[in-house]
Every structure is written in structure tokens, then in C-alpha cells.
Amino acid sequence: MAVSGALLGSWLFKKVGDEAVKMFSEDEINKQFKKCLSQASKDLSLKYPTAFGGSIASFLQTEEVYDEVFKMLFINVDLDKEKLSKHIDFATLPDSFFEDMVVTIKSQILKDYKLFPLFSNMEILNKVSQLIEGKNNLTDISSRNLRETLDIKKSLDEYFSKKFSYNDFIDIYFRNAKITIKDVNFFGLGIEQTYKKPRVDLKKIFIEPYFKYTFKDSNFDSLVSKVIRDADGNNSRKLNANDIFKISRNIIILGNPGAGKSMFIKAIMYGILFKESSHLNFSHINECIPIRIELRKYLAYKKNQGGGILQYIAYLFKNEYSIDFIDVDDILIIISRNSVLVFFDGLDEIFNINDKTLVRNDIVNFVDQHKVYSLVTSRFTGYDDAKLDDKHLEIEILDFNTAQIKEYVEKWYEIEESDNDTRRIEINNFLSVSDKLSNELLHNPLLLSLIVILYRNNLRLPESKLEIYQSCTKTLVDKWDAQKDLDIVLPENILNRKETIFADLAHWQYKLISDHPSKLNYNAVLDAVTNSIKDRLKIDDWAYARNMSEIFMNYAERRSIYFDNNFTHKTFLEYFTAFWIYSNYDKKYLIEERNKLIDKYIDNPFWFIVFELLLNMIDNSQPDSDIIDEIYDRQINVGQKTYEFLLIALSSLKNISRQIIYKLVKASFSYLLMKYRFTQENRFYVNSEARSEEHSIFEALRTYINGTNNSELLIDIGKSCIQSNVDDINKVSSLVFELLHRTPAANFIKIYNSLIGEESRGIPAGKQEHFAYIAYLYALKDSKDIVENLRVFKERYGMHSFFVSFAPCYGEWSYVSVSQYFLTSVFSSENPEVLCKFFNQIFSEKRDKDSFLYNIYIKSESLLYRSVSEIQFKQLLDAYGAEDNIYNKVLLLILIVNFVARDRIRGSSKQGLDLLEDVRLKEAYIRYKNPKKGLSEFKKFRSFVQDVLMNS
To answer: Where is the NACHT domain (predicted)?
Structure first.
């Protein structure tokens, strides 16, 4: 059957006007409908080759017939032949032709993403039906009023004029999003742009970050391993930005304040919107529609208007991207028919645990229901309050390494300094002296950006975080005020109090967004500044103070300090809030008021930097440790909810006594020790709930101990805990080992012996200390005692524990099984006889052989060792030749197959191993799949193996 004519788009536009079907053009609908009819014709021609002369077009030749058939194509409309009977003689058609034709066309429509919305929309059907019925009855003017018909036509025109157009949406959204995302705030000192925020193209300043994944026996472990394995077959636990969506569609990025989480989101959007390949090119998400949701704004919307994520996305498009023809139904169509990447930025910026849990549930449900790509960001602190489910890949954004620091400094100076010689000299000078700064300051992207500003202005490096915040704020404000071309209209008395007014505004705003974030708006900001000016300058005239507040806010906006109801950089907000507390409480001796504020917010991560800056201000003004000691002692006595912050701030303080440090570290250590648990299975119990509650304290303590090289303090505290309860020795030593993990002090033997006060005491005793024994084994540096170590291990724990792997109680990493230690040591030995003795020990009992084979082959136990050379491989084969036990030979060669990378074995050796693969399959089947025939089959198998070994 050949299709000609029957153009749906033209018909529909003719019926209801040019604006009738705004979601697609007339030509688009004609094209898609013609395509559906063409396919339907092919299908029908097989069954009805002669109907209507082979042309559906002839069947649809009159408008009356077309009208009725069109209505029947809607998804939920039944067939009605009676209405067509006066136009068509059904007696001349093959049986069931009409029904088959409608059903066949409908089936094609269901598959078409452009036609399906038309034919599934009952509102369209109703309105079109009214028009068709009206037209049919116009011949009887008495039964149908022409004016009523035209009113229906007008109503339909208005309905369709508001209808969603995907093409228009993409055009407007991408155009406006490019404007929003292209430029980012840049705090340099060359500020020719005095009437707007200083901004720069993102790609000129963006540094691609690296990420870390911590293996923790999750579904993602094997996927991550495949992505991060380098050319030498070793695990580099560092992920590139382009790697993450290869592993999972749903990501949670955790990081420290200022690590670049939000900037990374903007960079991804930049790459998608501009299709830039120069900095980020995500092959998996390049064609996605990116949508960024700031979660603190979403929460405010949810509380004020009661909507969910879908409603907020529609609200976002209308209010931030000027797309006023979109609604929730349109969002559903976009999400269901396109790849969409939703960014949920700043989970940590929701401070109330109930609110955070509510938003977390919204995210999880949304992602699960709509199958979108998603990326959530959060600081470490506070994340455990409402962790996402295990479908989200959890990764950490890393601080800058040395190469990234250099790249950032060069990019910063490229924007800031136009003279090549000056730029080169200052970059070299900065890099040559920057290693004097602590890693915490220099390697954090935010702090680095501030350090570079200060160095450029003063040609010297700041010494502390407080100096960075303090000097940066003062430098930027004073530098901008000093520009001669700035028309500063503030009265002198207000200009001289600008820092005080900014501090009043910051403190008011910090408390407001902590307690009632939805109440922050421009009028509330003006009220706060008006009250500050009235109180500080003793002005009684409210109208005058209000006018001055508007002028002050204009001043703040032009100097890029405050814009759009927020400080342009969180640095300003945090510093001025801390400055307000210090100047209004400490300087005025209102200690009780200060303590009440700290008591209220000390366990809220949003306040951590503010309180740290406050303590630094107090610390800098003190000749001794009395004040800081008093603050710390009071908070330690409150209990564990204060420990995380107190540990975080500890390393930045100078005037604090050793006694208070000891008290805090011991309190934190004792609390973690109390939560350590064993099970009856000779393994530590990984309590996921406890991990969530105590992990932040563990990380803060570990960061402090390792950052200050204070392992001896930890050992002393461990000793005191053991003296209190000698039975805790293995729990204490294991916790100490976790806290010192991956440091020079992380040698379990030395730790253990230090804690018990005896040299060479030996390995931990008892049957419960499986974890402690494995930690002990990993501390060994040679394999000379490998056979004896294996004997002890078998005696104490049994071979069933040989392949057991597990996570420590608090540390975010995994311990591979003890088999990794033993097997790596065996294959590293230069003496092949060690290998034979070792496996004689393993295979001394039949059940041990079965267990070993089961784990190596059936469970496909992952073996990390990959460095056996071909020469060493041949030496091992020679060693097997001395073995009398054919069974042992097979098992040893099976192990070699698992250990040796296939591309390193060539020639006849490889052929022999290929045969051995078949042998392994046979034995696995015999032993575990067909035990009844095992004996007879095994005899045949032994003969076959012997032939293989003789010919290998």
C-alpha cells in the first residue's frame, strides 16, 4: 500500500488554527504521521493487499472520514463504525479491515515520542471533538450556534498557545543557562568593573579536580577497580573527573569546605552547554540536559509553597531562566524522554536534621522513580546525619596537589597581571616560598585563592587561617575603596563604620539562615541594615536611616561584597560573623552570652569555621592559655557532640595547655573505644549505625593526630585505657592502628609492643583478635616466617578465615583477606622451596584443599598481586616438578593462573595454562556440582592432569 496525503499536522492546524499544536511544528507532525502511516501500510498490505486499491489515502480521501478516523486514533477511544457507515460501504471491505487498520496505526503512534503526547491528551480530544461536531452540525444552524462554535475554537487556540514546545524550551534554557554558568566570581585586585561583580570565564580559572574512592565491600568496588587500574595493573585510588559517571549514574561528592564541589558542578554544566572538550568532556553525559538545584533554596521553596522536586524544577525554569510556558507535566515529558542530569548542590547547607532527612528522602525517591543521572554535593561534616542510600557512589573530592596549585597560580596571574615579566617573576616567587605554609592552607582551593590575593597585595604569605580571612576581607574592601574612579556616596560616619555594619548584617543573616532560611529576602536585609545604622550611629529618624541603608547596600553591591541577598563570598559572611561575636561579646566581657551562642550551635557544622575564627581571635589577644582552656574544658564536659568541632579547631590554636589537649583526645578516644564491637565469628563487627554516628569524631581525631605528628600522645592514652581494663588491649591497639593508618607510625607490631610495654612480645593472643592478627601480618616486611605464620593462623582461626575480608570499625577503607598477605609473600620469595612448604601446610587436610579451591575458583577470589615475571613463572614450574602430590601440583598451577597476568605468559607456557583452565573447570564441576559421580570422574581427571603436566 502506498501512502499519499493524509497529513495530520496540516489537518489539525486547519481545524484549530496556527497555534493549535505548539509543542511541535506543522511540518514535524506531518512528517511523523506520514511515517506512522507508511509503516502501518506495510503491515496491512501483507494481510489486505487489494483493499482500497492498495492506498490508505483513498480511504481517508474525504474530510468527514478523516475527522472520524482521527478521533478513533486517540489512545482511550473505542472504534465506532456506525458514524462512518454513511460515508463508507463496509460490505465491500474485507472482514475486520477497518478494525485492523485503526489498531495498526495506533500501535505505530504509541512508539512515536512526538505523536504520543497528542493522541494521549484527553483535553485535546475533547476540544477537537467539539469542533468536529460543531462543524458537522453547522448545516443545521438552528441546532448549533455559530458563536458557540467560535468560542470553542478561541478556547482551544488559547489552550494550545500555552502548550509546551520542547525545541523552544531547549533554545531558551541553554541560551540563558550559558549566561548564568559561563562566568564565575573572580576575586583579583584589578577591578576595573566597578559596577558589577568581577567575573571571569570559568574555563580560564577552573582546575580539574581529582577524586578518591574508598573500597568498603560495596557493589561499586569491582566497577571502580576496572576504571582506576593503571597500565601496570596496580590500583591507583585516584579518580579523574571523567571517570565517575563511568561507574555510576548517581554520585555523592563529599569534601572539605572550599574544596571546589560547587565549582565542579558548574564546570560539568559548562562542558555540556558549550560542548567544550578543552577542560571536561564527559562522553556518558554530554547529551544530558543539566539541571542544578541549590538545596537550601529548594528547602525554602518546599516550606513556603509545599511542592516537591518536580514542582521546584518547573518553578526554577520559570523564575531563573524565563521559561514561562512550562509546567510539571512538561517536566515529566522531558525527564521520561531525554537523558537528564540533576545536580543537588549543598546538602550540608541544610542544618536542621529533620529538614535534611526530608530533603534526602526527596532526592532518593526522585532519583529512584525517574532514573535520571544525579550528582549530590555535601561537606563531610553533617553528612552522616542523612546519608544517601547505597545506590549512590560515594567519592571524596581531593585538595589540590602540587601540580594543581601551580596550574591555579598561573591561571590566576594570567587574568590578573598583563605584564609577562612581572607575571613570571611573581609566580616563581610565590611557588618558591609557598611550601612554608601548612598543607591545610595551601592545598585547599578556596584558601589558596585567598592566599594568592594576599601575596599579590603584600608580597608575603599569611601565617594562619584567621590572617587569611581577616587580611583578605580588609585588603579587598580597602583596595576597592582606594580606587579613585569610584564615586563613594556614603557619608563619612557610615563609611568609617562599614565593617561594623557588615558584621551586624552577617551575624543577623547567619543566625537567620541557621534557624529560618526561608525568611531571608531583600526587605529583611534592608531592615537589618537600617537597624544597624540607627543603633550604631544613634539616628532617631527611621526614614533617613532607611535611605542610608539603601545607599549602603548599593555601595556593597558595587564593591562586590554583597549581592542578591548574600555576601558574594562565604569568606566575608563567616569572617564578619566571627568578628561580630568577638567584638560584641568578648571585647565587652559578655562571656555568658558568648557561651550560650556556642552551646546552641557547636554541633552544627555550618558554624564550625565561624567558631574556629572566633577562637583564633580570642587566642591572638591572650598572653596565656586561661581563656581558651576555659572554653575547651567547658565544652568537653558537655559530651561527645562537641568533640568534632573542638578537634577540628585544635591545631590552629597557640594558647592551649597540654592538659586540655590530653583531656580532649582521651575523651574522644575513650568514646570511640566504647563503641568498638566484636562478634562471635572472630571478626570485628562493623556497626553501620555506629559508623554513621561516630565517623566524624574518628576523622577529626585522625586528622589532628596525624597533622600534628602526635602519635606518642595517642600511645600514652592507649596505655592508660589498657591499665584501666587490660582485656581491652586488642581493641585499643586496633583503634590506634586505625587512627594511624597510612602514616609512618602505622606499624602494628611497634604499636602493639609500645602499648603493652614489652619488646618482641609476639603476636596478639586469643581467638577473638582476628583483626589484630591481620594488622600484625601486614606490618611484617619479609617472608622468612611465612610457613610458621600460616601454621599459627590455621591453628587459631582455621582455613575458613583465610579468605575473609572486612572493613575496620571506623576507617573508611577495607582490609583485604589474609590470603593476600600470605600469597603475596610466597610469590615474592626468591626461594621456590618456600612455596612448596607453604602449600604443604595449606593442603595438609582434605577439607583445606577443598576450601582453597572453592575460594580461588568458585568464588573467584580477587588476588591483587600481579608482578610474577615469566622467568619466575618458569622457576615455579620447576619447583612443582619436585612435588610428588599431583593434586598439589594442580592447585599450585591453578593459583599461578590467578596470579599471573595473561599477556605476560607466552609460547608453550601459555598453551599449558589454557589447558589447565579446562582442568580447573572439570574439577570445580566434579567437587561442587556432581558429588555422586565424583570418585570415578576424579580418576579420569587425575589421568588427564598428569598428561597435561608432563607435556607442559
So the answer is: 250-413
700: confidence class by pLDDT, cuts 50, 70, 90: very high
- Is residue 391 scored above 50 in pLDDT? yes
Rounded alpha-carbon distances, angstroms, from residue 769 to 560, 682, 734: 59, 6, 9
Angle at 767 between CA 766 and CA 769, to 5 degrees: 80
- For 653-710, where are the alpha helices, taking DSSP H only? 658-675, 688-707
pLDDT one-digit tens code per residue, 631-668:
999 999 998 999 999 999 999 999 999 999 999 999 99
Is the dihedral angle over the CA atoms 632, 636, 641, 644 positive or is it negative? positive
Residues 116 and 222 in one domain: no
Alpha-carbon distance 322 to 299, whole Å? 21
The cell numbers describing 419, all together, are 605584564
Q: What is the per-residue pLDDT across 210-240, written as a single tens digit (0 to 9) for each?
A: 998 876 556 666 666 666 654 334 444 678 8
Residue finishing a domain among 140, 163, 186: 163
- Specify if 253 maps to a domain: yes
Sheet of strand 289-294, all strands in order from the earlier edge strand to the far edge:
238-240, 210-212, 393-397, 250-255, 373-379, 340-345, 289-294
Both 45 and 179 in one domain: the answer is: no
Q: Are residues 842 and 862 in the same domain?
A: yes
Q: Is the pTM here over 0.90, yes or no?
A: no
Q: Are residues 456 and 383 in the same domain?
A: no
User: What string of DSSP letters covers 839-874?
Assistant: HHHHTTSHHHHHHHHIIIIIS----------HHHHH
523 with 547: CB under 8 angstroms? no
pLDDT score of 140: 44
Q: How large is the average pLDDT for residues 439-463?
A: 83
The verdict on 355 and 422 lying in the same domain is no
How far are the Cα atoms of 460, 580, 743, 815, 897 from residue 806, in angstroms, in the given order? 48, 49, 20, 6, 25
- Shared domain check, 222 and 309: yes
Please tell me the number of Cα atoms within 13 Å of 156 on its side-chain side: 26
CA dist 724 and 319 (Å) reads 63
| Domain span holding position 177 | 173-397
Residue 401 main-chain phi, psi, to 5 deg: -95, 180
**Residue-averaged pLDDT of the chain:** 74
In the three-class reduction of DSSP (H, G, I as helix; E, B as strand; rest coil), residue 184 is classed as strand
Q: Using CA atoms, how far apart are residues 698 and 145, in angstroms rounded to an integer?
A: 80
Bridge-based pairing state of the strands 238-240 and 210-212: antiparallel
Q: Which of 364, 333, 340 is nearest to 290 (CA)?
A: 340
Asked if residue 349 and residue 214 are part of one domain, the reply reads yes
Last residue of a domain, one of 442, 463, 484: 463
